[in-house]
Write a structure and sequence with these properties.
By secondary structure, the protein is an all-beta fold. A hairpin with a 4-residue loop joins strand 4 and strand 5. The protein is elongated.
Length: 82
């Protein structure tokens, strides 16, 4: 399964009397699972597959305030039912 998460430009706070904004941002996540037996299954996920960067600005989009980069993240899991 793949999912694309999108957030438009948004206000996220106030600093020194000015609104702080986050630019529009999207990321692609991928998940998979496999049932080896009726009781044992495995899962794998990749979050932010395209390594998108979240950027913030002050009042106007050309007034940069921050970058938030969490990178591509990998997760593995197993589940056993008894």
């Amino acid at each position: 399964r793949a999912s694309y998460n999108w957030k438009d430009d948004r206000a996220n706070g106030i600093h020194q009397g000015y609104n702080l904004y986050t630019k529009d941002y999207g990321q692609l996540d991928v998940n998979a699972s496999y049932n080896l037996t009726e009781d044992l299954s495995f899962t794998a996920s990749v979050v932010n597959l395209t390594e998108e960067l979240e950027e913030g600005y002050w009042k106007q989009s050309n007034r940069f305030t921050y970058n938030q980069y969490s990178g591509r993240r990998f997760y593995l899991g197993a589940n056993y039912s008894f």
